[in-house]
Predict the structure.
Amino acid sequence: MANELSGASPQPENVDLPRSLKELIDRVSGRQISSVMPPVESGIVDLPPYPFLAIVGQTEMKLSLVLALINPAIGGVLLVGPRGTGKTTAVRSLTELLPEAPRSLCPNGYGCLPEDVDQFGMDGVCPDCAQRFGQDEPLAKLDQVHLFELPLNAEIDDVVGGLDERAAAQDRFRVRRGILAQADRHLLYIDEVNLLSDPIIDAILDASAQGQYTVRRGPIAATYFSRFVLIGSMNPEEGQLRPQILDRFGLRLMVDGLEEPKERLEAYRRVRAYQTNPRRTSREYEEATKTVQSEIQAARDLLPEVRISDEVAHLGLDIIDRLEIASLRAEITLFEATRAYAASDGRTEVERADVRIVAPLALRLRRSHFMKAYFEDQKNEEKEIKATVEKVLET
């Protein structure tokens, strides 16, 4: 593995090989980049993204994003921090690491998959896909996961879908798929998620909670799947996030600036190298990126076999109880994240150490001081009501 990362000649047998996906990412990210090469005037606008492995530091952020790729059941990632700390860059750089997933071949664009038949029967897919399934025709094929971005200026019809104007011009009425439907089985990234309008936030909440949504436009309606991994980023200086959508994010990261001058200098050098010659910089990490991508795919394939014992699960539950976290999504995220971490390490059993690493990512920003005070007030009122009832009935 180490030779694949460096592109160097074979090393002695006692070379210190990476023992896990996390260590592999940390090691490659810690390498110094080569000297900056002269800029290349190619005239091509479509440039490669900034390499994920070139991001300096930010270990928690990189780990959380990788875990979300391995296990979509984690519930996505929220990156919270000031401007200029690499949040958006990190998310967009995931395009080079994205694994494969089943992509629907539904001719109507509803996102029908074979598992929908297994779960809901023939009513779980559209009539055309039900007919194709009965004829042993494939309903899906493996395709790379994609990253969809929700523009900040998006309107509600862009998000959920609207009337297809081109079809309407030919007297054929049908609903055009929105971004939420297009992102089914993919990643949906929302930058500055705290600045979205309430109608769009509500649409995202409903679609992510149900895994599907219905669009009605006049006499026609269409239902689409929306089983996406939600990734958001925000700067708390610009406004807070509504509790309802905050609860939809599985892992929560506080992304602060780099503290060590050495790291900040290395980050500057890498950014300058990328701005000067992006393709050269991308090639420096190309082999390592392919290795990490294959490791993510292997972990994703291993994930169904990963189990968490009752002993380890009760440790997580004890932590949640002591922190007085009410939301059941806390243990869902914690357990699914530990499973993903074990899979990234090539294991089929979650260990106690996995809980120690993942718990801070899954449990922060989940306690509500408002709700705690609210319930305390209600308990006091409940005691007063019972005492009054008993006093009156005793007379």
Remarks:
- Residues 1-15, 167-171 have pLDDT under 50 and may be disordered.
- The chain has 18 helices and eleven strands.
- The radius of gyration is 24 Å.
- The longest strand covers residues 212-217.
